[in-house]
Amino acid sequence: MVNEGQASSSSSSPSSSSALSFLTKGWNEVKHSADADLQLMKKRANSFKDLATSFDRELENFINSASAFSVPAIRSPPAEIDFVKKLQPNLSEFRRAYSSPDFSKKVLEKLGPGSRIRIDLSAIKNAIVSEVEADGDGVMEFDRVRRSKRLNFKEFWGEWKGEGDAEEGQFKDWEPIRALKTRLKEFEKRSSSVEIFGGFKNSEFVEKVKSSLKSICKEPEESKEVPPLDVPELVASLVRQSGPILDQIGVRRDLCDKIVENLCSKRKNQLLLRSLSPEESSILENENINDELDLRIASVLQSTGHHYDGGFWTDRSKDDPPDAKRHVAIVTTASLPWMTGTAVNPLFRAAYLAESAKQNVTLLVPWLCKSDQELVYPNSLTFSSPEEQEMYIRNWLEERVGFRANFKISFYPGKFSKERRSIIPAGDTSQFIPSKDADIAILEEPEHLNWYHHGKRWTDKFNHVVGVVHTNYLEYIKREKNGALQAFFVKHINNWVTRAYCHKVLRLSAATQDLPKSVICNVHGVNPKFLKIGEKIASERELGQKAFSEGAYFLGKMVWAKGYRELIDLLAKHKNDLDGFKLDVFGNGEDAHEVQSTAKKLDLNLNFMKGRDHADDSLHRYKVFINPSVSDVLCTATAEALAMGKFVVCADHPSNEFFRSFPNCLTYKTSEDFVAKVKEALENEPQPLTPEQRYNLSWEAATQRFMDYSELSKVLNNSEEGEKKSETNRKLMTKSESLPNLTEMVDGGLAFAHYCLTGNEFLRLCTGAIPGTRDYDKQHYKDLHLLPPQVENPIYGW
Fold first, then answer.
1. Start and end of every Glycosyl transferase family domain (predicted)?
2. What are the backbone angles phi and psi of residue 61, rounded to the nearest 5°?
């Protein structure tokens, strides 16, 4: 029996456990379903509460706005407004009842298991119906509500949306509320029409409201009150305007710029932009901090009505540029047949500027007496008249550029200085450009032209003056006796004259002195003849012919400063490393005998030959050009060698920065590196130049760079785009007329002081001037057909 009982109990155990699990599962499902229903009801209750609050707020805003229009022109308010006013207390009571925090809690308690939903809204319904019935015209249609004595839940609340939308808390408005909103929208449309507001549109009340709104919403540009300059702006302006003085005493320009930027950056987005119009503010986005400060000061001065009519140094006699073609005058310190950079490069610049035919061009070169010509010009070549020399120059140029350049060549008196190995202008060079053509001046070597310049200030006579720095004079002077002391004085004199006589200065490379108003850009190209030679050699190599049959060579004026000292030192130090290396040297000069004797004493394998043109046929077959010079600013011979497709071995120096992008340019930093680069060049073949590389070496590209960096393109630009830009920048362009510029005042003072000092013959001689160069001598008057000197000659015109 025991066994049977145990068996029966064991058999009934699975059935009871399965029944228990079934009940548990069913109870859980019911619980989850009830919880979901409760959550849905809670969401609906909260949504209804939010709807009531939102409706009450909208209604209150509408009533307040409607009650604000207490205008005499409206004698009988519309029925809709009376209805809303009567309905407001009932709706407020409704809102307080159903928007309280306990509303949701009570609803959830009511919605427990077994409870029934009862919401008594009869009071609200009766209130709305009574108000509607009281309206004679029947503003709202509630027939369906009045006909129904008893409404069920669905009929009263309207149809709910689907279950998916209900879960998101979205449902339709209650039917009476929806109808009320519809009528309110219709009333709002009619309120904005002429029917209601036409009676008081032109009333005094509306005019006062308009004037009040205008005074409140006034735009910033309409305000005549411009905030005054604060202390940081005043200090920034003082530091920037004191730049010339700080530069002369040794304070770096970049330090002054950084101080100004730090002082102005804090105010850029606050006071500065707040006092400017949106048009001016958009201009500032493309301008630097100096223009922002200028415009800020100009706006303050404009608000005060102040106008600056010019100072003591202002030259009011300077003519405005004519409406016809502009005129460019290029003034240089040397002339052909002297094959120097300041003679050749300005000549090409004049030719390519004149080729565009957008402006008239005059090239002003020095005229030397026959005694000086014999010292300067090669092969004892002399000229008896300026016309004869002009013919020589034009023929030489036309052979190389391939076209006849239409520009004028004029001459000014000059004298050759044996000590300085350069030509010094005599008298006032600016007088050889007529006043009617005094528009734009390009001063090739501005420091050299103005060391002893005693005449009219260039920036007073010309509208735009650009200086192009060719020579690193400090490097040459340091090699002389007491060179450090001389270089100190020359450095400050160069700063002095370039600041006083130029608007813009272009430096060919960073090897030059850092001058005021200067930027670095290579604005020189190569003779087109060298590019043609390079193309010819490249075509021969494509045909499989041997283009280079010779090794290495060096070409340059035979003076120690032109790289001969560095060349001999390198070859002497590594004579054993370069065993069997032979170098051909081409050049003439004052130090030729000393250079050759030094090389012979050191037993260097150098083959000296007479100087010749770099384009000479005898030089085409050399593969490697060696240039160890570190005194050059931008070696023309290096550019010519690259244009002919040769290897160039040169020092890693700022003067060679432009050439580093060419694959055939091999730069070295140490003497051991020099040996490695020479061997690399002799053992390999140079790469042909790409079209882009050839263009970068051309004078077309150099002229375009010059136009951009000298700002000459802006000066010469007469297109519609330029006119529009000048319109938007008009306030920036006229700031100098509204504001005394301390920099211009200092520059004018420097120019006046320089004029006084150079007028003293004793001081001129003490600083190394050639005697008699303050004025022209008799031979110059005769050769250049000048008028005899006047007893009274007010040159400067102050």
1. 553-687
2. -60, -40
Residue 280 vs residue 516, higher pLDDT: 516
How many Å is the Cα radius of gyration of the chain?
46
**Report field, pTM of the whole predicted structure over 0.70:** no
pLDDT of residue 410: 94
Q: What class, spelled out in words, does domain 327-524+742-784 have in CATH?
A: alpha beta
User: Residue 453: what are its φ and ψ, rounded to 5°?
Assistant: -65, 120
Strand order of the sheet with strand 665-668?
606-609, 583-586, 550-555, 622-627, 647-651, 665-668
CATH homologous superfamily for the domain 528-697: Glycogen Phosphorylase B; (3.40.50.2000)
Give ∠ CA 353-355-361 in degrees, rounded to 5.
Answer: 50
Q: What percent of the chain has pLDDT over 70?
A: 62
Contact between 555 and 625 under an 8 Å Cβ cutoff? The reply is yes
Torsion angle of the four alpha carbons 696, 697, 701, 707, in this order, in degrees rounded to the nearest 10: 110
- CA-closest candidate to residue 570, choices 583, 551, 589: 583
Q: Measure the CA–CA gap between 337 and 326, rounded to whole angstroms.
A: 29
168-205: b (≥16 Cβ within 10 Å) or e: eeebeebbbbebbeeeeeebeeebeeeebbeeeeeeee
Evaluate if residue 642 carries a pLDDT over 50: yes
Q: What is the DSSP letter of 272?
A: I
Residue 730 confidence (pLDDT): 44
CA dist., res. 209 & res. 388, Å (int): 86
